[in-house]
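Q: I have 219 residues here and want to know how they pack in 3D. Can you give me a structure?
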Amino acid sequence: MYSMLRTIAALQPRRSVITIEDPVESIIDSISQSELDPSGGMTLASALRSAVRQDSEVLLVSEIRDPETAEAAMQASLTGHLIFSSLHATDVAATLRRMIQFGVPSYALQSGIRAVLTQRLLRRQCGKCQGDAEQKVHCEACVGTGYRGRVAIADCIFFDGSDPVGDTLSRALDRGVSAAEMRNDAIAAGWVDLRSQAETLAQQGTTDLPEVYRVLGEN
């Protein structure tokens, strides 16, 4: 999210950008960043509503963690603001179902969400010992762990009519199906999920299956 805000600040310096964070994790020049003060009783949702009244164009809310914040974020999105936020969920299907659980209607999600990006970091196999049990014990490059560095897996699904997977998930929202059914529909539409990406990296030797299972679980 910080990378996207930096891009906006660099390419569109006159655009009004406000963040509401808990806490501020990185300083970005030329944008207004605010940090919640729990002792003052202000919540992410109330701070977001206040920021909307300040005629902001782009807003970052550090995390959607409750129905109140979800509702405020969607209202801001539907009134023309560009909102960035994070949510704890396993993938795009789980993200949409989580928002439904927060009480956001499916039609609001279809109108208010432009894209959902999910990502994980996998430890990269050490290039020197290649994770070999005997060699890694004495490997100085990875300090005996078998891993050195990390590699990202990610997918970004758009809901603006340009992405067949996004269109498929929108229709699944209308039907009210489970996250598992949504995933099956998305895969049939060409979605390459995080697990498939991770397993491909394991086959290529970039990482290994134990690391895939550690990050994504065994199922």
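Q: Anything worth noting?
A: The chain has a mean pLDDT of 92. DSSP finds ten helices and six strands in the chain.
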